[in-house]
Amino acid sequence: xxxxxxxxxxxxxxxxxxDTIRFYEREGLLGSPDRLASGYRHYxxxxxxxxxxxxxxKSLGFTLGEIKGLLALETDRENGVxxxxxxxxxxxxxxxxxxxxxxxxxxxxxxxADACPGSGEPEACPILSALHGEETPECREGGSGKAxx
Length: 149
Description:
- It is built from 7 helices and 3 strands.
- By secondary structure, the protein is mainly α.
- A hairpin with a 5-residue loop joins strand 2 (34-35) and strand 3.
- It holds the Pfam family MerR_1.
- It comes from Novosphingobium clariflavum.
């Protein structure tokens, strides 16, 4: 006999909230479950595995839209594996781009923080000056001449 779960039991087992499960259903990531006569959702064990898949994909940086695409590719016997590989490479390229951007932001902010006296008049603080859009030597050294946006 197949074991079924309520939304609360599924949420507990997958370590997500019931609202998250409802959201994933609305987004088409998790199939709509059968409902009991009482209206309660009735999930099978496959729902736990699907939620764990979604959570692992999210932990690798995939967006929910990308995860939906990965789920669709999983059933494509001809192009699925190559499609999944291509999506992973695209995600890696995006992560590399974001790492570069964040490194630049960190370096610019570090230069401002290092130059800030930490006391005195607000006008002497290069961080505040940069936030007001004023050029500072630290920002010019960071590359853009203004605080990173």
